Amino acid sequence: MSKQQLGEFLAHSVELESEARERYLELSEAMAEHNNSEVAEFFGRMADESRLHLEEVAEIAEQHDLPDLKAWEFNWPEEESPEAASYEAVHYRMTLRQAMLLALDNERAAERFYRSFAETSSDSETRRLASRFSAEEASHAAHLVKWLGKLPADPEHSLEEDDAPHMPE
Asked: To the nearest whole percent, how much of the chain has pLDDT over 70?
């Protein structure tokens, strides 16, 4: 039973970090397309951070038998993995502060996800790794909070369109 719990936890962890990386890469490319270079660069850095965490998790996972879970077999608290940024929360004109707040929500969601494994697993190795991953996500969140504290406030109505909609006559 304990090897099964550890395998399922690691399968979820690999998927969580992989999806976070893919989503941040997508968002970085989308923001670059819209000439929002500051936010594109930030999402690119978040993708790099996710890649590093994915490499760490994948290295651990290589030493264990992981179940081959289908997309619908992952047990996420919401529809998607906890660290995959919501498309609905993204706007092509979002500010760096808004992007960082979105990333902070993702880091906190991942921390809660890992902590839930640490608190509920009956396997000691799963609890140990989940606690470690949870602490790493909490550290990432603390770093973002510190960084956010150095940013100026956003201008009001930063997401409003400058131009009236074009309506064909």
From this structure: 91
State how far the Cα of 123 lies from the Cα of 30, in Å rounded to an integer: 41
Residue 144: name the closest of 63, 74, 83 by CA. Answer: 83
Q: Report the pLDDT value the prediction gives residue 165, as an integer from 0 to 100.
A: 52
What are the residue ranges spanned by the domains of the chain? 2-148
Q: Which CATH number fits domain 2-148: 1.10.760.10, 3.50.50.60, 3.40.1000.70, 1.20.1260.10?
A: 1.20.1260.10
pLDDT higher than 60, residue 20: yes
94-149 pLDDT per residue, tens: 999 999 999 999 999 999 999 999 999 999 999 999 999 999 999 999 999 999 99
Which residues have CB under 8 Å from 11's CB, separation 6+? 61, 66, 67, 69, 74
Residue 98 falls in which region: left (phi positive, over 0), alpha (psi -120 to 50) or beta: alpha
Q: Which amino acid appears at position 92 of this protein?
A: Y
What letter does residue 32 receive in the DSSP assignment? H
